[in-house]
Records
---
Amino acid sequence: MSYSIAVIPGDGTGPEVVNEGLKVLTAAAVQAGFTYELNRYDFGGERYLRTGETLPDSAVEELKQHNAILLGAIGHPDVPPGVLEQGVLLKIRFALDQYINLRPVRLISGVETPIKGKGPKEIDYCVVRENSGGMYTGMGGNSRPGTKDEVAIQEMVYTYDQVARCLRFAFDYARKHGKKARGLGPDNTLALIGKSNVLTHMYKLWNRVFAEIGDQEFPDVKREYYHVDATCLYMVVSPEMFDVMVVENMFGDIITDLGAITQGGLGVAAGGNINPDGVSMFEPIGGTAPMWTGKNAINPLAAIGAVQMMLEYLGEIEAASLVEKGIAHAVSKMKSMTANEMGMGTDAVGDLVAEFVAKG
Ligand code: IPM
Ligand code: MN
């Protein structure tokens, strides 16, 4: 097979971690016998400051011509908050209709979690975050701005189709990758996370479609429901109760950061923005870490994990599993997952994974 992959290294430490990810991709390709071509794009803060351009419409069309996109990080201290997030990251998610944000929360053996008494057996679930709707649609506005009568409205918007396609993806994911499918428990379980006791309109829709699709198409998948506030509590005190979770966009944004810290932090957490029928984008979720930029101090394992997810998604399962083992190998040699405390440089971590993968 041959793939064309768009690479957006972005800002801050994005380029450094993406380099390590690509190092590992090179090794994986040799092992698994596939080839690829890379197209690099310079979207991000530097380009915006130079040209005033975030992501031109022509780029959207170009990105669509690839098999996958690998993203580093977007954000710049000299650019007002929101400009790059909306102009690059959210624009790609929306324009390419990447309506799922897939965030595995898995504690790798040897990685420290801040949760006392919990290990890789307990912290092993996946969040399916809706990635196209909710409060992220940008509907609303401010009237009489700057006065005491100012009204601010930011609406949470979902259509039936958005809810149905997200739930269908989540059910299917639970069926294929749930704890039963992985030999780790008696059931594949999908938990809908919401706030049906307050957002009654919203969860009338979500709950109904959840039951409908579950009954009709996925009777083999066990269903649960939890309020999002309680979920935060359970994610800390009993993460083992989760298998696959499905959650709307804004709540998903919040709980996936909580999940990330329980799996060892932003140095290791990766995610995918998925369009099951289109082009998907994979990213370390850590951000630009301006403090560590150019210091060879940032942890690249999240970016390497993003490459692993990309390989899985491309169907290169063997290569993905090699990368996963390579990451575990690197972890066993590292002092910490925290930037500047790893006991080695960014490049050395990438080398460890790449060398492991190269040995097959
Ligand atoms: C994430 C990020 C983005 C989000 C920001 C950067 C727009 O926090 O991927 O979780 O809110 O979705
Ligand atoms: Mn977030």
Note: Residues 85, 89-90, 253 surround 3-isopropylmalic acid (ligand 1) (CB under 6 Å).
---
Amino acid sequence: MNKNKVYIETYGCQMNVADSELVMGILSRQGYELTKEIDEADVILINTCSVRDNAEQRIFGRLGNIKKIKDSHSGAVVGILGCMAERLRDDLIKNKNLVDIVVGPDEYRRLPSFIESAIGGVKGIGVKLSRTETYEDIEPYREEGLSAWISVMRGCDKFCAYCVVPFTRGRERSRSLDSIVSEIEKLSVRGFREVTLLGQNVNSYNYEGKDFADLLNAAAKVDRQIRIRFTTSHPQDLSAKLLYAIAENPNVCNYIHLPVQSGSNRILRLMNRNYTIEHYLELIEKARKIIPGVSFSTDIIAGYPTETEEDHQATLDVLKRVEYDGAYMFKYSPREGTKAYKMEDDVPNEIKTRRLNEIIALQQSISLKKNQALIGTEDVVLVEGFSKKSENYLAGKTDANKVVVFPKSEGVVPGDYVNVKITGATSATLFGEFLGKTVLNEFADGISA
Ligand code: 5AD
Ligand code: SF4
């Protein structure tokens, strides 16, 4: 084979980042080599996202550039992977005289043969969804590093009314617990320090009777010096057992991404979220009791169909009541095929923008206040490398996933855990003073009462 250099570009969620590593795992077994230079690639793959229209528009824009590269010199095979492949299927091949292959999230095993055919001039499309594919036997291609994503389940059965994911990624299925544990064992040997267990809805992990709490307990035991994170949790399935598993494992980070989406019960019902705000707030309270110091982040959608000023105020109110450490905030974007698509997208764009800006401003002021309250406290930071702005400073993250920047210190290298004293804060970054190297505590920090 002479067409053997693959370039891959990834959009969307962390699941896609993990999938791109999987794709490279599949292709490297077949003798392909990864390149970071699009200009020297024989195969250009774009792993795409459909969650909002602006994500798709950005990717269409990028495809325009790629067409220029292909036409001007490289003649590379171009493939679209991921959620847009699943959603748009052969339109991608028909509309743009650019794309050679279209492969959805459950058909990556067939990529080598699609690429071979495309090199021979035959376009290909594979977009069947599977009820069983988890790729658990495939070792993802990972460069050396500290931090790894591990997908523990695929798909989603929740069918939130606005969301395209159940259509692009199919039904929920979980990987075996043993295969996940053995992947973490390998990462431990390679010196990784942080593993994030991924799924669209990790709380419904279930493999031969083992639930997500069982998985967390098993994953945390592999190496107590590896921090375990996980995302995303759905408020409906966050069990007490899971909260105790977080509290009782010192290396499971006390940080829960728990999207609320809206503060209005009427909107939550229309979104098919299956919980009320009262239930959600109780859950937060329960988690705070079981896991002292736990942090939360959330996702918010502004301008859902029929959303009134009162509904919007209810969302602002939830942000104030919970005081999240961070939030991902979006304008509602209608997605074809979803239940919400049948409703009129009746909140005008200017109003969506204004509401979104109010949400962002409020959250920023909360993040700033919460970060400033940390000044004077001490925390453990996993050192990742130099800070973005200067090689005189190092940066890393706390258990609560906050970035801390502190002056470089002799003998401190990426992968070290260090104690820092927080001395300053913005809404996005903490500044600290280096106190000394440390290791992760082996004892639980939660109460079991
Ligand atoms: N419009 C806007 N935001 C959306 N999300 C999912 N679908 C849509 C949509 N149609 C947001 C949700 C979800 C996050 C990953 O993306 O907040 O939690
Ligand atoms: Fe985008 Fe959702 Fe697909 Fe992730 S699962 S790539 S967020 S559409």
Note: The pocket of iron/sulfur cluster (ligand 2) is lined by residues 12-13, 15-16, 49-51, 82-83, 164-165, 168-169 (CB under 6 Å).
---
Amino acid sequence: MEFSEKTGRIYVAGHNGMVGSAIVRALKSDGYSNIITRSSKELDLRNQNQVDQFFKTEKPDFVFLAAAKVGGILANNIYRAEFLYDNLMIQTNIIHASHVNKVSKLLFLGSSCIYPKLAEQPLTEEALLTGELEPTNEPYAIAKISGIKMCEAYRDQYGDNFISAMPTNLYGPNDNYDLKTSHVLPALLRKFHEAKVNGDSEVNCWGSGSPMREFLHVNDLASACMHLMKTYNEKEFVNVGTGTDVTIKELAETIASTVGFQGELVWDVSKPDGTPRKLMNVSRIEASGWKYKIELKEGINQVYKEFKESELAL
Ligand code: GFB
């Protein structure tokens, strides 16, 4: 069965998360209605029996594997065991059950942190496993690398059409704004907003501000996932990003000006910088006919508007 026929049963794992919810929105707006979802309360994806039973009963034709334990630099570094265990269990159970239940096509989502800390920039897909990983997110990266390798191995041994995409740092609706576990973009948006509302003169930012990061709006990632499900059937995984990056300091200044915070930025160097740079080479996906649409400034404006309308905003 072809994904483009729009009649297949589609399981979106992780539909309440930022990525999964964006994929569900993209599917619906493209006329797909046969979508299966389960919350983590209904189905514990770390539990093999529950996952096996779910696949046996629901028999999905297509799977978007967007369920994962995710978080920013500090959460990755503190909850090292959970980032490894939860992610390995979730993806292993889903990939294996997809094989057993003859899923026509599966898309596994990884992360740009799979690449070696000091890999040549921009990062081509060939840089995988050519050097040491960034220590703060090594457990998460090891889990994601295992997911890629599982998809490749099931294709090699059984001919399963399991593909993988590696998104760069993401932001968008349904992001995590908890300051201890979030990524930099939502964290700074919240910090600057609260400082402005409270009339604070300074905002505490982590690290030195010199690392560089690439940011992709999650709606663009969802459109890339749709594109890959429709057109891409190769073993080689695919980077998904914009191909441009900014320093954390530049990001902070952009967010401060979007929010209208005019105070000072104080850099707390006791917090980790993480990898110095992880800019994606996006030639492979661009050659296949996909390109991002939402520029960073425009995307930050959008998420700030959504944040102000949410119950989180002061
Ligand atoms: O987004 P982030 O947490 O994750 O941090 P990574 C990016 C950079 O922003 C780091 C700095 O240099 C942080 O020190 N930063 C500045 C802040 N202020 C803040 C703040 O208030 N909160 C946060 N969180 N950062 C994660 C990986 O790495 O990226 C994951 O740990 C995953 O595994 C994810 O790959 C996409 O980009 O460093």
Note: The domain at 3-174+214-244+278-294 is CATH 3.40.50.720 (Rossmann fold).
